[in-house]
Write a structure and sequence with these properties.
The chain is mainly α. It has 3 helices and no strands. The longest helix has 19 residues. The protein is rod-shaped and about 70 Å long.
Length: 50
């Protein structure tokens, strides 16, 4: 069983910390959505030479 004294000694997370995590997550997602894709490989590299 958990004592109430044990719960009071637990450290609490600052309220701004989850907000920072959400902002970073959304910023990274937006960056992925608007970032240009990688350039396609040259055609010579895609074909096999006999």
């Amino acid at each position: 069983m958990v004592n109430s004294a044990d719960l009071e000694s637990e450290p609490t997370t600052p309220a701004w910390l989850p907000v920072v995590g959400v902002v970073l997550f959304l910023a990274f997602g937006a960056w992925l959505a608007i970032a240009p894709t990688a350039a396609p490989a040259p055609a010579a590299a895609q074909t096999a030479t006999p």
